[in-house]
Every structure is written in structure tokens, then in C-alpha cells.
Sequence to fold (247 residues):
Amino acid sequence: MQVLSDVYLVGSGSHMGMGLTQKHDCNVYLLKGQTGDLLIDSGLGIKPELIDDKLLAAGSGPRLKYVLHTHAHKDHCGGACYFRRKYGCQVGLSELTAHLLEEGTEEAVGMAEAKARGDYDPDYTFTGCEVDLKLKDGDEFDLGNKTLKCISFQGHSPGSTLFLVRGAEGCYLFSGDSLFSGGQIGLLNKPGSSLDAYRENIGKTHGIGVDALFPGHLHFCLTHAQDILDKIAETLQKDVKLPPNFI
Fold:
């Protein structure tokens, strides 16, 4: 699904998305560049060929240079191994959590817990993957006609990363499960998710002039997205009321 001239939605499950691919996939975005393309997140890893089909339809696939992940949760990074093996692209994840994907154990990514709740088929096996790029705050990736910048943003999970890029149609922010187009945050009732960290990091989104916001689930916003970010920041900086939570 082409969203902007250089952004495609190539994966999105029916559980909390558009129903384009496997039901538990996060929103997976393709960012097209002059010297190569970049994938934001890789889905759960069940039937990754459904995402791949949409990559090829968008004229990518062999042009895929990077697969960068917003965080290490299973529905966002489970497909990394498939794309790395097929296209030889480099896989990126925060330096704080890269070991979780490399270990590839179900305990590391919370799959055992999710299976126990009945969220996933007990026959599904999470596939780990070597991480070529241990992402740090301020890292940049050149695609010829645009540069993507990493913004470390703790809150939803350790190692959560936002990706900011000046694209063909304005400034885009790929926000994973940290910030959502409806003004929600992704605070979880589990270790590693922190409201204090949200408060500490939300200032990084101030005044960056975001036009389009592309979150890891639910709908995206193509215009005036900075207003959404500013509203979340304003609410977080108050002592009583919290932003709505997407979970």
C-alpha cells in the first residue's frame, strides 16, 4: 500500500492494524531511497513472504539495504532473519537490546509468556538473527536523497528507537510502539516499560517539525503530526492527567 511517494505500508496485521499480512504483524514500513531502500520493523516472522510480496510489488526487495527495528518485541523483529537471508541486507536494533534478537530465545523476546496466555500458536518458533548494526542515539543512514536519523526513546521498552527522516513530502517520524497517531503512548504493565522514562525522553520530539507520524500499530497520520506530539508532551509534563494508552 503506497502511503506517500516514498513510503509504503508493506505489513500490518488485523490484530491492531490494517489486516494486510499475518494477523500479529506490526505495521511494517518501506522507505524508498535513491541508493537503496530501508524497512522499518520486520513483523512477527509468521508468513514473512506476505510482506516480501508487497516489497516486490513496490519495486523493492533486491534494493533493500537495511532492516531497522524500533524495538526488540517479537511482533516487530521476528521477520528479520528472513529478509537478511534473502536479500543480504543489514539488520539494525538498539545496542541496548540487540542481544535479545541475537540470542533468539522465546524467553528473551517474551514469546513463552505470550504462548502461555494463548496469544500465539504453540507450534510457532521465534527465529533469532545476527544484528549487524547496534543502533545508538544520533546514528544516521544515508539513502542518497534522504538521511534517516535514530533517536533513542526509552519508555515503551528498553532500547526503543524513533526514526526521523526528511522525505519527499515532508518530515516523517517512525515511532514504533512509543507514540501513536491518536495521541496515545505505549506504556506496558511489565518491567522495562516506564512512565518516568517517557517523561525524560518526550522532549526529544519538541520542535522537530514532524508532518507524518508512522506508528507500529493502528493508523498513521500524514499531516500536522507535530501537533499530536506536542499534545502528548504537554500531557506528560503535567502531574495529574496521563495521555491515553494504546494497550
